[in-house]
Design brief:
Helix content: 25-40%
Order of helices and strands: EHHEHHEHHEHEEEEHEHEHEHEEEHHE
Mean pLDDT: 87
Structural class: alpha/beta
Bound molecules: glutamic acid
Oligomer: single chain
CATH architecture of the largest domain: 3-Layer(aba) Sandwich
Radius of gyration: 22 Å
Shape: globular
Strand content: 15-25%
CATH topology of the largest domain: Carbamate kinase
Low-confidence stretches: 1-7, 214-221, 386-395
Strand order of the largest sheet: 3-4-2-1-5-9-10-8
CATH superfamily of the largest domain: Acetylglutamate kinase-like
Number of domains: 2
Number of strands: 15
């Protein structure tokens, strides 16, 4: 049996579509699963899959579902309690999804990820290949954070960020964040009657909004995490839409071109998958401040970063860690994998590459960040910069 919601015309070519639904959309007032919402979501995603698209669902509801199962009236605060409750809820959540998708003959898979899975290159690649296999098998992967094992400093923390990183990983065309508001507003509409709806965001840096308190009117993750998801997704060339989770068939309407929700334009020249990993999968452990010549060399001329152009070194990083490259004013220009640790860089900053072996007493790399390991920030506006076209889309 194939789901046939009252669909509008289908988009021109098969797309990779990541859909994230938050706990607030999945649960009804009495803290039970909102089955009608889930059923509509399942219908919509099965329909898209049947149309030849590749679909990933990022679903919260592990902790919420566990609370409901155990009769807890509020979410536990202690981390180990939350982890135990998530373990109860995750299985229940998947059972409900499997029941609903099975009605429509749509196979699903559970994929639980932690931040460290995306930070380590080998695990990142393994996750990528698993998603490709699942796509080939016509399976819809259902992703959540592996809450029972994730430790605080290695947590995504919220599924908005997780879904953007998954979209980044698989090179998605679209990321939909289904939440409990129709769209973003210039301020919290409940507190501010002058709040303006925002339908289209061309450049995130031009967005002028009062983000308000975390979680006020913006679902579990809050508006801040949605904007962080937009930064990651659009920077990876993914178009993003925020829309109401109560009406998941909005996804079909948005794909057909209707201006629903708040939509974010993808940035041009998306990086290769490897560069997307450097830009978004890794957590930077330090910053290098560069002089104007170095900013021009990496930004305009597409060159590697050399020690001569580094003015200041900040942070405790090791060789091969990710670092942020900024101009003298601290504006982020790029991110990259660094060839020297912070002690070494303190000694060689501002010095020419042919002096490195003399200063350190051993032979090292000519470059501090090689151009192959360097990703420009698509929103950087330094006058010395212009984007360097990238054509590769492979590992
Ligand atoms: N992973 C959490 C859960 O399943 C949800 C995190 C979030 O709501 O963003 O309960």
């Amino acid at each position: 049996m194939t789901a046939t919601p009252s669909a509008t015309s289908k988009p021109p070519k098969p797309q990779i579509i990541v859909v994230k639904i938050g706990t607030s959309s999945l649960t009804s007032a009495n803290n039970q699963l909102a089955l009608s919402v889930l059923a509509r979501l399942v219908e919509t995603l099965s329909y898209l899959q049947g149309q030849g698209h590749r679909v990933i669902l990022v679903s919260s509801g592990g902790v919420g579902g566990g609370c409901a199962r155990l009769g807890l009236s509020e979410r536990p605060k202690a981390i180990e309690q939350k982890q135990a409750v998530a373990a109860v809820g995750q299985g229940r959540l998947m059972r409900v999804y499997d029941d609903l998708f099975t009605v429509l003959d749509q196979p699903i898979a559970q994929v639980l990820l932690t931040r460290s899975d995306l930070m380590q290159r080998s695990r990142y690649l393994n996750s990528y290949h698993t998603f490709q296999q699942l796509f080939d098998l016509q399976v819809i992967p259902i992703v959540n954070e592996n809450d029972t094992v994730a430790v605080d400093e290695l947590k995504f923390g919220d599924n908005d960020t997780l879904s953007a990183l998954v979209a980044n990983l698989v090179g998605a065309d679209w990321l939909f964040l289904l939440t409990d508001v129709d769209r973003l507003y210039s301020a919290d509409p409940r507190a501010n009657p002058d709040a303006e709806p925002i339908t289209w965001v061309q450049h995130l840096k031009d967005l002028d909004i009062d983000v308000g308190d975390r979680g006020s009117a913006w679902g579990t993750g809050g508006m801040i995490t949605k904007l962080e998801a937009a930064r990651i997704a659009t920077g990876a060339g993914v178009r993003m839409a925020i829309t109401n989770g109560q009406t998941p068939d909005n996804i079909l309407k948005i794909l057909a071109g209707e201006p629903l929700g708040t939509q974010f334009a993808p940035r041009p020249n998306p990086s290769s998958a490897r560069k997307r990993w450097i830009a978004n999968g890794l957590r930077p452990n330090g910053s290098l401040y560069l002089d104007a010549g170095a900013v021009r060399a990496i930004g305009k001329d597409g060159k590697s970063l050399l020690s001569a152009g580094i003015v200041t070194v900040e942070g405790n990083f090791q060789a091969q860690d990710a670092v942020i490259l900024c101009d003298r004013n601290g504006q982020e220009i790029a991110r990259g994998l660094v060839n020297y640790n912070h002690h070494e860089l303190q000694q060689i900053r501002g010095r020419r590459s042919n002096e490195i072996s003399m200063i350190l007493g051993y032979e090292g790399a000519d470059t501090v960040v090689h151009r192959d390991n360097l990703v420009l920030n698509p929103d950087a506006t330094a006058s010395d910069m212009k984007p360097v076209a990238e054509s590769e889309h492979t590992y």
